[in-house]
Design brief:
The protein has 1 helix and no strands. The chain has one domain. It is an all-alpha fold and 41 residues long. The radius of gyration is 12 Å and the shape is elongated. The longest helix has 9 residues. It holds the Pfam family YhfH. This is Protein YhfH.
């Protein structure tokens, strides 16, 4: 069972910024959808 969960997260596609489309260098399962340059918080 644990192997299935690990494989699920391993197979997620690269996360892209919702604003500029750059690949986000962070964990793919994170809730954020903007890169550091586009994040205005």
């Amino acid at each position: 069972m644990l192997e299935n969960v690990i494989e699920f997260f391993r197979n997620l596609p690269e996360k892209k910024c919702a604003t500029c489309g750059e690949t986000i260098e962070e964990q793919h399962e994170c809730y954020g959808n903007q890169c550091d340059n586009c994040n205005s918080i």
